[in-house]
Known about the structure:
The complex is a heterotrimer of chains A (109), B (95) and C (227). Chain A is mainly α and 109 residues long. Chain A has helices at residues 3-24, 28-50, 59-90. Chain B is mainly alpha-helical and 95 residues long. Chain B has a domain at 28-78. Chain B has helices spanning 3-24, 28-48, 52-76. In chain B, α2 runs antiparallel to α3.
Amino acid sequence: MSSGILFACGGLGLLAIGIWALVLRAHLIRKVLAVNVMGSGAFLLLVGAGSMGEAGVDPVPQAMVITGIVVAISATALALALVLRLANATGKPALPEDRERDLMDSEER
Amino acid sequence: MNTGQALDLLLVLVLLWVAWAALSSRDLFRCIVLFIAFGLVLSMAWVRLGAPDVALAEAAIGAGLAGALLLATWARLPGKTEDSKLDAKGEDDED
Amino acid sequence: MKTRHAATEPGPVFRIGLALLLFAITAGLALALLAEPVAPGVAGQVEAALGDSGSKNHVTAVLLNFRGYDTLLELAVLTSALVGVWALGVAPDIKETTPSPVLLGMNSVLIPLAPLFCAYLLWAGASRPGGAFQAGAVLAAAAVLYNISCRRPELRLPSAPLRPGIVIGLGVFIATGFGVMGGGRAFMEYPAGLAGGLILLIETAATLSIALILASLFVGGRPEGEP
C-alpha cells in the first residue's frame, strides 16, 4: 500500500469514530471534540486521496485543507462559546433532551 | 513493506487509537489533553504526506489553539471552579 | 415543566445498528477509493503556471493567487465567527489563580520570540513552507499565553483599537481585488509583475487580522467597555 491510500483509509476510520462519538455522547464538549475529529478525518481523506495520483504532491488539496483547518477552528470557537452560555443558563452542558443522561463528567483523576 | 510504509501504518494506527481514547475517556480533562496529542500526531502525518504547510497550520491551530479553547471552556463550566460567577450580564442587554 | 420525552442511554441494539451502518459506509467509501483510477491532479498545471503567480511556494500560490477567492471567503468566515462570539455578550469570569513560575518563565522566553517566528513564517511563505495563517496562529498563541499568565488582570482591551485590526485583513484583500481591475482585468486578476508584492501585502494584513481574531476568539466574549 502506498502511503496515500493508507492515510485516506485512516481518514475514513476517523470519520467513523467521530460519527460514533457524536451520536452517543451526551456532554456537549465531547460532541465538539467528535466533530473536530470528523473534520480531521475528512482532511486526511482529501490529502491522502490527493497524493494517490502519479503527478506527485498536489498542492490544491493542501490549500483546501489549510482553509478547512481555519474554518474548523472558528466554528469550534463559536460552538464552545455557545456551550458555555448554555451551561451557565441551564446548569448543565447538555442538550435539553440529554439532560438526564450520564454526562461522564466525573471528577476522579 | 519498507520502513516508510511501516512508519505510515504505525502513524495511522496511533491516530485511530488516540482519537478513540480522546472520545471515550471518562475524564473530560483527559479527553482534551488526548485531543491535543491527536493534533500533534496528525501534524506528523501531514509531514509524511508531503504537506509541510498543512503540518505547520495543524500544529499551531488544530492542536495548540483548539486545545487552549477547549481547556478554557472546560475550566469555565459551572461547577469546575469554586466561585465561577454565572453570566449575570445576560439579563440587562439592551436591544 | 418538561414537555419533552427525556432521552435515555442508547441501548445495545442502537449501538450495534450504528456500528453496522458506520462499517458499511466506511467500507463502501474505501472500496470506491480503491476501485476507480484516481483522476490526475492539477499539480502539473500549478507547476506550469507557477512562474507568473508571484510565489515559489506551490501552496501559497494556490492559496493567494489561483484560489484567492476561497481565502477571501475564509477570512470572511473568521470575521463572522468573531462577530458571532461577540454577539453572545461578555465572557463569563473565571477565578484567577497566581500563575505557576513555569508558565511565567516560559512566557519570558516564548512571548518575545513569537513576533520573530511570525515574521519569519510570513516572509518565508513566498518560497518555503510558511504563510499568513501559520504566522498569525503563532502570534495568536503568544497573545493567549499572555492572557492566561494573569501577570496583570486579563487584558482589557477596549474594542475600539481592536476593530480596525480585525477587519484590515479582509479589507485589504477586497481592496486589492477591486484595485487590480483597472486595465480591463477581472476581479483579483493580479498583473504579472506585481503579483509577488500584492501577495505579500495581502498576507501581512491577513496575518495581523488572523492573530487578533484568533486571540479574541480565545477570550470568548465581547470586550468590556462596549457601549
